[in-house]
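A note from the maintainers: we've had questions about how concatenated examples are separated. There is no special marker in the raw files; a new sequence line simply starts the next protein. For clarity in this README we add a label.
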Amino acid sequence: MPMQRPVARLLAVVALFAFPLAASAQTPSPGQAETQSEAAPSQARPPFRLGFGDMMVMAVQSRHMKLALAAEQKNWKLAEWIRDELEETFTRLGRLYPQVDKVDLAPGLLMVKEPMEALKKAIADENAKDFTAGYERLTQGCNACHTLYKVEEISIKVPKGAQFPDQEFAPPKKSK
């Protein structure tokens, strides 16, 4: 029974992100869209796609915070998973948005590459001191990227306190 709740949450998250993908998968090709829009102009719609800012807030920022909270509780398994998800998100952003406002995204993504590797090693070694240093460099990399793209008003910091009261960040207690 205890596994049902996390599984249900995971399914809810998957459904949240799968729905827009499923909807866009059913979108007609450009040639079909032109034909359909001529026949019924009110029914032709472009596929839904999250904007770059949406991805930053929903995927990057939340994972950045959760990564710190997991490491703070020394839940290295969770920290590893979140770090991997964050890295995957950066990769996906580079693929989906090679340019933002006609500026290449690649130089900004390079700013987080080294800190992400340092975090990977610190997590594998379960080294809180190295994690803290790597996390600080990651946070600085985020802000350097914001400066590069002239959005300095978006300033990231190391989180203090739990921003996700609905998630447990401490490692699970081992049953005897």
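[label: protein 2]
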Amino acid sequence: THMSRTKIAKATETKSDRVKRLLSRKSGADLAALQDATGWQSHSVRAALSTLRKAGYTIEKTEPKVEGGAVVYRLTASPDGL
């Protein structure tokens, strides 16, 4: 059935896939959103960002527009050119 295929697709998405998907959005993602999506602590999310950079991804870091706001990260280039 269609419903079970959807569940399977979501179950096979790794936490790293989730991070990449969130970073690929036009709006990007802040640390809190990445933590919520993965269940990781902030240092683990930062390590994942570092690992992506080392793998050839370009991650743009946008400083907050307002004081006390969140830094936003966005994937702007991948090693395979996507």
